[in-house]
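Entry 14. Structure prediction run on the chain below.
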Amino acid sequence: MHLVIYFCGTNNPGSSFYNSNTYLKNPNIGIMFVKGCHAPEVCDSVIFPDLKEFSAHFVNNIFKRTTSEEQKHNGLTIHLDNRGTLGVDPKRCHNINNNPSIESITLAGHSRGAVTCFEIAKKLNEIAPQIPVDIVADQPVPGNCYVAPGTNAKSIADCRHLNNLKNVSVILGTYTGRRLYQDRRQILSSSMISKLHRIFFSQIVPILPITTKKDIIVIPHESHHEILTNSPSGSEHLHMQIAKYLHQRDEKLIDENIVQEKTSIAAGTYNQSSYTDPALFPQEKNLQPIFGLSRKEVYKYRDKLHPTPELRAGCILNFEEKIIDWWNKHNNTKFSTQLTKDFVKVIKETDASDPDSLQRLYILHGIIRSWHYEIIFSTNWSMNIK
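Output returned:
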């Protein structure tokens, strides 16, 4: 049996996973749902939970090693006698019974639940290194502002020794710490909120074995708890990656049409509102640090499902803005992006007096939405181009 274990984030009931996991209701797949670190039976802590200690306790009590004469290595079975003291929610589990033989495992989680996945993988590597493990970590936040001994960040920073890891997806938000929605009762200033966000909500990308297939997906997010309009929450991409990995297995546990469906759902998050453009990525300089990944590396992993993945915040051509002003605003960087190089090439090939040529310019680069196209043909717009 293949086992999928989902770990909730702090104070998060995990509804986004539970409400969308019907595609996993397969007789060959078991689902285990585990509460977040805030739960008394998990870590009973919101500020400084000991995820390493909980993971050791969880693995040692849920899994039992079995050895057969035919196999020289240890197998794994599930024992649920102590699940009530381990944060396992029986109402949200599926196809889990005592003593099923586990052949492979997918660990998934959000926030600190995503960090817990790596701690669980470490313990599984100790007791049954031959059992292949996939991880899908949605915005892993260890809750530390630095990597130091004794912290959750330090504990999972280097996972190169985990030979059981076959596939790992890390979904990252482009956090800036900026608060999007102001509360009338708000006491803290925006700058203080940003500083606190950087301290407690910095994400982490562990170092992985060279044999592990690594997928990093960067989605536009301003802060950990607030989602931009026309932007994914992260859970849609989590389900997409789980489905991909299960389809890639030799047993083909998930059909390709389900993978396509989950991919379509993830892509659709950028177009939920027809009144707003897809959420853009903030400028690189505004990103808060990510453990294990430099700011310069972040945008190498922009979500390929984003309609305009190359654009940063402020890069869209504003209504009635002259092209030359737009160009001067963005032509002050030392190194040009491929988008800039391509755009320069198209501009040079564009005949400003030819409406068809101008239309090709905007269609090719998605600079403006379709409702802008009629402006292209106006005399004033052509004057702006010149």
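The longest strand covers residues 165-173.
Filed with the rest of this week's runs.
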